[in-house]
């Protein structure tokens, strides 16, 4: 996973700070501010660390009302 990478994720849960949490290959965690469980946004990876990445939503395909 690289900074600037754009990918589709599924928000599985929310973290302690209310951010969405998605898991991608091999259980790697992606933190997505404003993500809600069940959302399937397209995100851009902004910061990559050893076991977690931080991303922003570029397109939200959720079916929220």
Automatic annotation (TrEMBL):
<dbReference type="InterPro" id="IPR002792">
    <property type="entry name" value="TRAM_dom"/>
</dbReference>
<protein>
    <recommendedName>
        <fullName>TRAM domain-containing protein</fullName>
    </recommendedName>
</protein>
<dbReference type="Pfam" id="PF01938">
    <property type="entry name" value="TRAM"/>
</dbReference>
<dbReference type="InterPro" id="IPR012340">
    <property type="entry name" value="NA-bd_OB-fold"/>
</dbReference>
<feature type="domain" description="TRAM">
    <location>
        <begin position="1"/>
        <end position="59"/>
    </location>
</feature>
